[in-house]
Write a structure and sequence with these properties.
Elements: H1 2-25, H2 42-47, H3 53-84, H4 90-97, H5 105-118, H6 125-149, H7 153-161, H8 166-195, H9 198-203, H10 210-217, H11 224-256
Length: 265
């Protein structure tokens, strides 16, 4: 009974801000407090008239799409190598690749900032993409490793017996089987990049992403209700993408016959 009450209290503490976000987004008052002043949708309308929102959304979409594609491509190669082949130093190499999962993000951001400035690379959208790829590639590898581990090696051997080269067998046989994992990796990487703040804040220079724009607007009390409306849309989009990613992840596990070790939702 005690553990159940603790679990309920913990979940309420964890998700209460997300629940309150749309409530205040539809509140007619400019002060984020109870009691509510009435129902309105004007903050959602006013959101599209903000001058800096458009460029921030454009930058975030460019970064998120680029990050998702690059990290998934790297994830496919790394997951394939780690599940199919044995090579010297495999454990340390994979551990080094997965290290960003356990490192504090602000440490990674500051380290990248020092290195990039030290070698003379100007801060731009490209540097944000590099940082996001570093952070999202381990997630892509974790997802794709589950997909590759459940593959039946006899299918690939049968393709070789029928005259396919290793490259064509991988393209025609392996990739279609792991496609649900690839889609899941793309969606997860896109969501993580779209919501990421610390690396974008340190490595963006004059290029503002959506999370950085939201952070900057909290300095102006009149803009807070508009940010609540924008946050509501972002939360709904993130939940939708994560749900789709989890669906494809489970579909890939069911297709390959691998054991489900837990999901994202």
């Amino acid at each position: 009974m005690i553990f159940r009450a603790y679990a309920v209290a913990y979940l309420l503490f964890l998700y209460a801000p997300i629940i309150l976000l749309p409530i205040f987004a539809f509140n007619d008052g400019t002060v984020i407090a109870f009691p509510l002043q009435g129902f309105t949708t004007r903050w959602f309308v006013q959101m599209w008239t903000e001058p800096g929102l458009g460029p921030a959304v454009k930058n975030s979409l460019i970064i998120a799409v680029s990050t998702a594609v690059i990290s998934t491509m790297l994830g496919v190669l790394a997951a394939r190598a780690s599940t199919r082949y044995r090579f010297p130093g495999k454990g340390p190499v994979m551990g080094l690749i997965m290290l960003p999962l356990v490192l504090p993000e602000i440490i990674v951001a500051v380290s990248l900032l020092v290195v990039l400035l030290g070698i003379g690379v100007p801060l731009s959208i490209l540097t944000i993409i590099l940082g996001h790829v570093l952070m999202t590639t381990p997630f892509a590898i974790a997802i794709l490793s589950s997909a590759f581990q459940g593959l039946d090696r006899s299918l690939e051997e049968a393709a070789h017996d029928l005259g396919e080269t290793p490259v064509s067998a991988f393209r025609l046989v392996i990739l279609p089987l792991v496609m649900p994992g690839i889609i899941s990796s793309l969606l997860i990487s896109f969501t993580l990049s779209l919501d990421e703040f610390i690396i974008a804040f340190f490595l963006g220079g004059t290029q503002v992403t959506l999370p950085v724009y939201i952070f900057s607007q909290f300095r102006f009390p009149a803009s807070v209700p508009v940010i609540m409306a924008l946050g509501t849309i972002l939360v709904a989009l993130s939940v939708l993408l994560l749900t789709i990613a989890e669906y494809y992840r489970r579909r890939g596990i069911a297709r390959s016959g691998a054991k489900d070790t837990g999901g994202f939702l």
